[in-house]
């Protein structure tokens, strides 16, 4: 005999499916949160923190980065960038959209849809999205060079294994001011990973590696991948040139 499909029975099945699919996810998130979440460490501002930041920049040959006129990369295979650094402009492309950002005056930016210039009602939305993409994705490329940016606070932190780490807090600028990053360095001062206390992540102190560094044509040292737990963030073919 076939079972009668009542509303109560259907709701019970739906409820069971929701529990079946969400409970493992909730348990997994709980495990990750307990294992990896950390409070923002305290550190000491001043000369020692600045010296460690300078050591990191020297290990990366900051001068070569500053003299790099053009950077190109692709973030996670989706967002494509051609950053004319000395001209304060960047071509940001995703799907069929290309935004030529004027990084000095955002209102002068241009939008193209399917290679045709676009001035419709959603132009500003595309510009705002390109700015958010650029702020996030360029940070994964050049963050070590931003430790002395305006609005940054630098603190020296002693880790659990008594090593020096560099805590950077961005009090202004970018898309999410107030975010903090704890840089872990090798013996030469080169970044190997950082922990993040950022608004967009529910887990505080989550760690991401800085891997597969290359020396570009301009001499700038840049990463080509990162690892966050089980996930890889690929930067594509990273290029840096001087004009």
Order of helical and strand elements: HEHHEEEEEEHEEEEEEEEEE
Give the rounded overall mean pLDDT.
Answer: 88
**Total of DSSP H or I helical runs spanning 4+ residues:** 4
Could you give the count of β-strands?
17
Q: What proportion strand?
A: 25-35%
Percent of residues in helices comes to 25-40%
Span between N and C termini?
A: 80 Å
Overall spatial form: globular
Structural class: alpha+beta
Strand order of the largest sheet: 7-6-5-4-3-2-17
Largest sheet: 7 strands, antiparallel
Low-pLDDT runs? 25-29
Radius of gyration: 22 Å
Textual characterization of the structure:
By secondary structure, the protein is of the alpha+beta class. Helices cover 28% and strands 33% of the residues. A seven-stranded antiparallel beta sheet has the order 7-6-5-4-3-2-17, with helices on one face. Strands 1-8-9-10-11-12 form a six-stranded antiparallel beta sheet, with helices on one face. A hairpin with a 7-residue loop joins strand 5 and strand 6. The longest helix is centred in the first third of the chain and has 30 residues. The chain is globular, with a radius of gyration of 22 Å. It starts with 6 loop residues before the first helix and ends with a strand. About 2% of the residues have low confidence.
